TrEMBL record:
InterPro entries recorded: Glyco_trans_8, Glycosyltrans_8_dom-fam, Nucleotide-diphossugar_trans
Keywords, in A-Z order: Glycosyltransferase, Metal-binding, Transferase
Pfam family for this entry, one: Glyco_transf_8
Annotated organism of origin: Methanocorpusculum petauri
Family annotation (PANTHER family): GLYCOSYLTRANSFERASE 8 DOMAIN-CONTAINING PROTEIN, LIPOPOLYSACCHARIDE 1,3-GALACTOSYLTRANSFERASE
Domain of life: Archaea
Keyword Transferase listed: yes
Full protein name: Glycosyltransferase family 8 protein
Length: 332
């Protein structure tokens, strides 16, 4: 009998990019909490920095993930059309333009032709629950294009954003976050022309604030199954201990690898220390150093991280390496 495996997809624009570390953390957390064996599909542009040390180093770490956790990783080369590459969306606090990898999920039905279903995850997520539970939703006979969680954004949108949504046809009722998606690839291939629809939307509305997410909401507005909030729980909102049994999504600008006291940061650091990107002190040191350099001045002073990095690291070691590896809670 063919082994049942959970298939999950990530969009990684460049295998040389340091962001691969965060995807590695997401994969580590996923496989450590999943009751099914996992197959990972990495969508990327293989032409970028292919001969660089970072490219080869990340590939080696993904190989170590396979060996350590029994996960299977497949690489899928993708080239995006120019109308996507030239898209310039943007909320004020994002850099101009949009990460091209954000659009990979839109092109996945035609790229992953051997798969009928897949789970898509953003790379700024820690999975503290068993995703096999939502993977089984594909067996219940319900017809839906995507299963997803409601987005908290509409609760906080300004009137200008709401007026814009009405103007271009972005639904505000039932608006979903696209960071965690169970995608019915077969239905999408059969019932939608998602690539053509994306091109038309971008041509008519090149200034979409959240282009990839807005597009998916426009296309699938009436073909959604909503999942419990725990499968896409925003960090940064006061969620108490719910982080321990959910998919923690670091949706805001600050991230746990940038902000010393970011909500649920310990969840990220725990799985980083268990992944090939942080399983030795030498590896995790560079992330700690980068984080302290990025910290706001008041936090640098409070932690002594920049003014006295040696003291900061000594204190970290004094707490014990087991704290960082998740035996105890990590406290900054």
């Amino acid at each position: 009998m063919r082994e049942e495996r959970l298939h999950v997809m990530f969009g990684m624009w460049d295998l040389a990019d340091p962001y691969n570390q965060h995807i590695g953390v997401t994969i580590t957390s996923l496989v450590m909490n999943c009751s099914l064996p996992v197959t990972v599909h990495l969508l990327y542009d293989e032409n970028l920095h292919k001969d660089s040390p970072g490219y080869r180093d990340n590939q080696e770490k993904y190989r170590q993930l396979e060996e350590q956790f029994g996960v299977k990783i497949f690489y899928h080369h993708i080239v995006l059309p120019n109308y996507v590459l030239h898209t310039r969306g943007g909320l004020g606090y994002f850099s101009p333009g949009w990460p091209p990898s954000a659009f990979f999920r839109i092109f996945s039905p035609d790229l992953l032709v051997d798969l009928d279903w897949i789970i898509y995850l953003d790379g700024d997520i820690v999975v503290n629950t068993d995703l096999a539970e939502i993977w089984k939703r594909r067996l219940v006979g319900e017809e839906f294009a995507v299963a997803c969680c409601r987005d908290h954004g509409p609760e906080y949108w300004k009137n200008s954003r709401l007026r814009y949504c009405k103007k271009v046809g972005i639904p505000t009722e039932g608006y979903f976050n696209s960071g965690v998606l169970l995608m019915n690839l077969r239905k999408i291939r059969d019932d939608y022309t998602i690539v053509e629809s994306t091109k038309e939307i971008l041509m008519n509305h090149p200034d979409l604030p959240l282009p990839d997410q807005d597009i998916l909401n426009i296309i699938f507005a009436n073909d959604i199954l909503f999942l419990p909030e725990k499968y896409n729980l925003p960090a940064g909102l006061d969620q108490g201990d719910c982080y321990k049994s959910s998919c923690v999504h670091y949706i805001f600008c600050e991230k746990p690898w940038r902000d010393i006291d970011y909500p649920a940061a310990k969840e990220y650091w725990k799985y980083l220390s268990l992944s090939p990107w942080g399983d030795t002190f030498e590896k995790i040191y560079s992330t700690i150093q980068l984080m302290t350099y990025r910290a706001p001045l008041d936090k640098r002073v409070l932690t002594g991280s920049i003014l006295n990095l040696r003291t900061f690291l000594s204190n970290l070691l004094r707490r014990g390496w087991n704290d960082v590896r998740g035996v105890k809670k990590l406290r900054w």
